[in-house]
Structures are given as structure tokens and as C-alpha cells.
Design brief:
Layout lengths: L1 E7 L2 E6 L9 E10 L2 H9 L11 E2 L3 E9 L11 E4 L2 E2 L5 H4 L10 E2 L16 E5 L3 E3 L6 H4 L2 H12 L9 E4 L3 H12 L5 E4 L3 H9 L4 E3 L6 H9 L3 E6 L4 H10 E9 L12 H6 L3 E4 L7 H9 L9 E6 L3 H8 L7 E5 L2
Parallel strand pairs: 11-12, 11-14, 12-13, 14-15, 15-16, 17-18
Antiparallel strand pairs: 1-2, 1-4, 3-5, 3-9, 3-18, 5-6, 6-10, 7-8
Helix pairs in contact: 4-5, 4-10
The structure holds zinc ion (2 copies).
The site of one zinc ion has 8 residues, from helix 2.
């Protein structure tokens, strides 16, 4: 088969690569569409992603729509020919976290298209990929390939919104207007948040945020930010979702959240420690929570899209063929222009 292999920083080559064989319990998928994620961009840019350093060239990609092409021994409940999206995080299923329904915290998770394992686990920038059968979620006909490949990032957003008790009627701020930030804004709005505000340093991203459903867009570096915030949210936002992964945005979240409010950290901040105003956490009773990947929200994500409660189409900003995988990475890295860039494989 053909696959796009990452050989090092900014070195992605489309070449012939062995097609994986479905082991017992696994499904061989023929990839139709795959999205470029921020983590893929980290790998492409640096050759590694935070603490994950690949020990050999490998295939990125974990946001996909695919057809079930073959099944390993013992698979039931999944048909050859079904069109599916994939939960790329394969939790062990047996540890305390998995059994408590918090598989995203499973320390034995095998993530598709990631160097979190040694050797790295190949992903979906390829004609075929193998996953455990229970990672597949069948797509209804009205969720097309492009939307199917949006289910993984949308699941990240849904999980984040569920990390606070409720956003219904709450004044929500999302810091960072990239794909995940916008998906969080869209999910919060669908769950009744009002108003929903997105902040981003890039003017183009603020414009897009308003187009996809944010009520307000703020420039976090604006000199008159405090009066702007006051107009929208009086003494602060009820909930701040930090989706930029930028340390100054997290620091600012503590000033923009109201006393008694919540901050949810979704953005990846790198491995270095960051000073935080712990005293504000105490004397304003701020709840500071993390959100990592997703719980069992894929079928809910599919239903919300299928029933048109949310429209994720405006987030897909470009589609390129597998041969142009490196170009897709470069295009996706252009924050002023691109949102979600996808690779079409068949
Ligand atoms: Zn992703
Ligand atoms: Zn586990």
C-alpha cells in the first residue's frame, strides 16, 4: 500500500509500505479521509511531539473515515463494507480507569499515529490501517467522509464541555480559535451556553469564530480588553475553556474567569512547568480542571452532527490527495488561512 511516512522534522515521504494484517479482534480499514491534527503538526514541525520521540519512521494520522475491509478472528458486531469513524485511543479495557468508564486516563492506551508507544503506532495517512474492532463507530449516510473525519476532534470538544457540570445559560469564553477551540465553542453553544466568546490573537481566526457561531470574538492582546470583557460578562466568564496551549492565555484565564467560575485546560502546554496564580484559585474559589482526549462520546458526537444540531462543515478548509501529504501539513500550519485540512485517500 501507499503511506505517508514521517522520517524526521519536515520530512514526510509518500512511499510503498507493508499493509497491516488484522490480528484477532482487529479490523483492517481502508481509509477514505483523514484530518490533520495539531499533534500531527507538532510531529511534522519538530520530528517529535512533547515527550513522544519516534524511534523509527512512522505514519501519522488519527482523525478518519474508513471502510471496513477485513476482520480478524473473533470480531462480532462489525460488518465488512461498513463506513466508520474511529476512536483512535485504544484503552486496555481492564485497568481501574477503564473499568470506571474513564478510559482516556488508561496508562496502557495505544494511540493511533503516535510515538507514545515504542515502537510508534502507525496511523491513517495510508491506504490501510488496523484498529481494534470496538474502536469503530458506524456512520449514518448523512454524515459524509469529511464530517466523519471531524468526529475525533469534535469528541475532544464534547468531552471538554462535559468536564464542567453544565454550560447551559453560562457565559463561556474559549481561548484559542483553532479547530479544537471552535469545536468547543460550537459544542458549548449546542449545550445552551450564552453568550459564547472566542479569543484569538489572529484576526482571521476571530472572523471565522463569529461565522461558525461565536457571539463575540476578542483579541486577547487588545489594550481595552477589560472593558470589552465587562460588557460581555460583567465580572468575568462563568467558564473559560483554554484551547490555545499558550501559557499567557492560561495565565489570563485566571483574570477573566469570575469568582466561583471554572477553567478547563484542553490545549497542550508542553512539558515545562508554568507559574500559576494559585492564590486566586483559593480566594476566588476557581475550579481548574483538565480535559484529555475523550470519554465514550463518539456516538453522541455522530448523533449531534447527523441530526444537524451542529454544523462542522465550515471548519473543513481544504482537502488534498495522499501524494500531497507534506503539502497538507504545510497548509494546515498556516494559522491565518487554514482550519481543518484533510487528506482524501480514496
Ligand atoms: Zn486529533
Ligand atoms: Zn486501561
Amino acid at each position: 500500500m501507499m503511506a505517508a511516512l514521517l522520517h524526521g522534522a519536515k520530512d514526510m515521504r509518500v512511499e510503498v509500505y507493508p499493509r497491516p494484517e488484522p490480528q484477532p479482534g482487529m479490523a483492517l480499514l481502508r481509509v477514505r479521509r483523514v484530518g490533520v491534527c495539531g499533534s500531527d503538526l507538532h510531529y511534522f514541525e519538530h520530528g517529535y511531539c512533547a515527550a513522544f520521540v519516534p524511534t523509527r519512521p512512522f505514519v501519522l494520522g488519527h482523525e478518519l473515515t474508513a471502510d471496513v475491509s477485513a476482520l480478524g478472528e473473533g470480531v462480532t458486531g462489525l460488518q465488512i463494507g461498513s463506513r466508520v469513524t474511529v476512536n483512535p485511543a485504544r484503552a486496555c479495557g481492564f485497568c481501574e480507569h477503564c473499568k470506571a468508564g474513564r478510559g482516556n486516563l488508561c496508562q496502557r492506551t495505544i494511540m493511533l499515529g503516535s510515538a507514545s508507544t515504542i515502537p510508534p503506532t502507525d496511523g491513517a495517512f495510508a491506504e490501510y490501517v488496523c484498529v481494534r474492532a470496538d474502536q469503530c463507530h458506524v456512520l449514518p449516510d448523512n454524515v459524509d467522509d469529511g464530517l466523519g473525519a471531524m468526529m475525533e476532534p469534535f469528541a475532544v470538544a464534547l468531552h471538554a464541555v462535559k468536564r464542567v457540570r453544565s454550560v447551559s445559560g453560562k457565559r463561556v469564553l474559549v481561548t484559542g480559535g483553532g479547530p479544537i477551540g471552535l469545536l468547543v465553542a460550537i459544542a458549548a453553544r449546542a449545550f445552551g451556553a450564552a453568550p459564547v466568546t472566542v479569543s484569538d490573537l489572529v484576526a482571521g481566526r476571530r472572523e471565522i469564530a463569529l461565522k461558525v457561531g461565536a457571539d463575540f470574538a476578542l483579541d486577547p492582546a487588545a489594550k481595552d480588553l477589560p472593558p470589552q470583557v465587562q460588557e460581555i460578562a460583567l465580572d468575568g466568564f462563568d467558564v473559560v475553556f483554554e484551547a490555545s496551549g499558550a501559557p499567557p492565555a492560561l495565565r489570563q484565564a485566571f483574570d477573566l474567569v469570575r469568582p466561583g467560575g471554572s477553567i478547563v485546560q484542553i490545549g497542550t502546554l508542553g512539558t515545562q512547568d508554568i507559574p500559576l496564580p494559585a492564590n486566586l484559585v483559593m480566594n476566588r474559589e476557581i475550579e481548574f480542571t483538565g480535559s484529555f482526549r475523550y470519554g465514550n462520546v463518539f456516538d453522541e458526537a455522530i448523533r449531534l452532527v447527523s441530526s444537524a444540531r451542529v454544523d462542522l462543515r465550515p471548519l473543513v478548509s481544504g482537502t488534498l490527495p495522499l501524494q500531497s501529504a507534506a503539502q497538507a501539513m504545510i497548509q494546515a500550519a498556516d494559522k491565518a488561512q487554514a482550519l481543518k485540512v484533510q487528506i482524501q485517500i480514496q
